[in-house]
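Field: COMPLEX_INPUT
Field: COMPONENT_COUNT = three
Field: RESIDUE_TOTAL = 304
Field: MODE = joint
Values follow.
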Amino acid sequence: MPELPEVETVARGLQREVVGRTIVGVTLRKTDFIDDPAELEEHLPGRKIVAVERYGKFMLLRLSASDVSTANGEQDALMVHLGMTGMLRPQAVSEPQLKHTHVVLPLDDGRELRYVDPRRFGRMAYLSGEALQSELRRHGLDPLEMRFEEFAANTGKRRARIKALLLDQSVLRGVGNIYTDESLWKAKIHPAHLGARLKPDQLRRLYGALQQVLQKAIALRGSSISDFLDAEGVPGEYQQHHRVYGREGKACRRCKTPIRRIVVAGRSSYFCPNCQKAPRGWKKSKRPPRFAARRKRKAAATKL
DNA sequence: CTCGATCCCTGGACGC
DNA sequence: TGCGTCCAGGGATCGA
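Field: COMPLEX_OUTPUT
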C-alpha cells in the first residue's frame, strides 16, 4: 500500500531517526527482492547515512562518500521500495524481531535498521551515484512539484485510460491505486476516460485534486489500510478520509449514490457512478471473469 | 503505443 | 479446528 504519502511519512521519520548514523554491518535473510545482495554486504558497512529522501515510491538513503565514490553527480545510496507490505524502521537490538525480517543493518548507536516485508514485493538495491542517476531517469513527474503544463503534456495527449496513466510511474512517480481513485473522485472524472479525451478544465481539476489529496494524506501520515506503519511504528490516519477507496456500496459523500467498484487497467477502481460519468463506449456493469485461466492451470497442476 | 494476462508472495477472509 | 480457495496489489515482462 505504501504510496507517495506513506513513503514520504516513512522517509521523514527516518530522516529524523537515522541521519548521521553509520551502518556497521549487514545481515541478510531472504534476498530475492534485492538487486544484488553482495553489493549491500560489500558497500554498506562503514558508510554514514547523510540524508533520507523520497523519490516517487522509493526511499533513498544517501550515503557518505567512499574511497571509490565518483566525485561528481549523485551520492551513492541505498534505494528501498516498500512494495505492498514493506516496513523500514530503526529498533533497539533488544526489541524482538518481527517475522519476515529480511534485512538488518546495525547502526553505530546500538540500534539496528530493520526491513520487514512478508510478501517481498518490495525492492532494495545499493546504487552507486552513477547507477542511481540512470535509475532515477526512468521515473516521471513528481505530482507535488510538477507544473500544470507538464502534467497536461504527459497525460492530455495519451490514448491510455487516465487511471492507467496516473498509475504509470514513468508518467507520475508515487501515485498508486488509493490516491488515483481519491483524486479522480475529487475531480469528478471517471477512471476509464482516455487521457487525450479529457478537456482542459478536467485536466486542471485533476491536477489540483491530485495535489490536494496527496498533501492532506501526507499531513495525516498516510493511509493504514492493511498494516502500514511509519518509521516510528505509528499508523496513518488518512484511511478515515477516503471518499471512494474501499467504500463499495456505501453512499457517495457528495450525492449519496452507492460507490461502485470496477476493474480499469487491470486494477480495482472505486468511483461514484453519478459524479463520475463513464465515457461513451465504456460498458457499464462489468465484473470481469478474471482468474478463469488461473483456475484451469491450477487444476491441471494438481493432477500432475 | 496500449492492452490484457501472468507471475512474484503471504496473510486474511470466507466457506465447508 | 482446520483445510482449501480466493483475493489484494506494484511492477516486470510478454504476446497480441
